[in-house]
């Protein structure tokens, strides 16, 4: 019978935990001050194993000891994680678990990635497009209206069209699928929710007789 210790779980690259074809990070073993493994932790490890993800906590400069990220009346634990793919792990330059403050029972975590950015590059947004964006508000009648919208031939055909769409595994393919899904959600919202027309103009705030801003 194989016994799994907490140190084996925390470094989760033991041969008794991983499938034979799993790429092991021999040079970057994890250190974790939290030695308790619960159901949520086991599910997280299963996700990493099945998806080829790596836990950054306790591996790199800034958190080399695997500090706690959560405190409560029952003690300290590590529940806030940064996950990256195996290919991205070498691009992680720095990871830090910050000190606890009175603002939260969780410690803030920071992740710094190596990247190449041209400082002279300008990112411009088309303001005309933003002016035409509408917002929708859920009302008491919206639930039944959504059900009715999903029953219409038009919406059903749109959903089927998306389901049978041959999506290319490229940026353009993903963009096309997202655009079709957005159109479906917007059409349903048009039928079921209260519509507000978008505008980039700031509303003027009224003053009462006392001169206070309302």
From TrEMBL:
- The protein in question is named Uncharacterized protein
Q: What InterPro entries has UniProt attached to this entry? A: Endo/exonu/phosph_ase_sf (IPR036691)
- Source organism per UniProt: Mytilus edulis
Which superkingdom heads the taxonomic lineage of this protein's source? Eukaryota
């Amino acid at each position: 019978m194989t016994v799994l210790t907490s140190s084996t779980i925390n470094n989760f690259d033991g041969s008794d935990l991983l499938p034979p074809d799993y790429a092991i990070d021999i040079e970057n073993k994890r250190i974790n001050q939290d030695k308790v493994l619960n159901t949520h932790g086991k599910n997280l490890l299963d996700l990493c194993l099945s998806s080829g993800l790596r836990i950054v906590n306790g591996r790199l400069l800034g958190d080399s000891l695997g500090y706690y990220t959560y405190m409560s009346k029952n003690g300290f634990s590590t529940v806030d994680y940064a996950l990256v793919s195996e290919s991205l792990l070498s691009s992680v330059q720095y990871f830090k678990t910050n000190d606890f403050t009175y603002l939260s029972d969780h410690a803030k975590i920071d992740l710094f990635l190596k990247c190449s950015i041209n400082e002279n590059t300008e990112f411009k947004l088309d303001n005309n497009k933003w002016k035409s964006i509408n917002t929708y508000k859920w009302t008491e009648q919206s639930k039944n209206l959504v059900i009715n919208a999903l029953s219409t031939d038009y919406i059903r055909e749109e959903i089927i069209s998306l389901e049978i769409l041959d999506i290319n595994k490229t940026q353009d393919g993903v963009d096309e699928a997202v655009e079709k899904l957005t159109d479906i959600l917007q059409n349903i919202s048009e039928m079921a929710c209260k519509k507000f027309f978008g505008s980039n103009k700031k509303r003027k705030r009224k003053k009462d007789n006392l001169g206070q801003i309302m």
